[in-house]
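Lab notebook, bench 4. The sequencing result for the construct came back, and we need a structural model before the next group meeting so we can plan mutations. Quick request posted to the team channel:

Model the 3D structure of this chain.
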Amino acid sequence: MDKKTTSIVAYITFIGLIIALCAGDSEGAKFYLNQALVVFLFSLLTVIPCIGWIWGIFMLICWILGLIHAINQEEIPVPLIGTIQLLK
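Done. Here's the predicted structure in token form:
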């Protein structure tokens, strides 16, 4: 897969993220892979009662922004959690 396809597939589901890491252009789409992983991991915090609803809405907005940036190939980090680097 090329860089654009890899970055879009990474945002679709967690399985898409794994496929993008294994079969895609990992070096070219490293920024988007990292962003998708951070959004996925932080979205796991939505199970917290009361605060989880608000956090879930924020994570949905971050996911949509990240997907739009991946489609347009703009390396703009998602708000608040976009500066966290998990993949080196």
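The chain has a mean pLDDT of 91.
Will bring this to the meeting.
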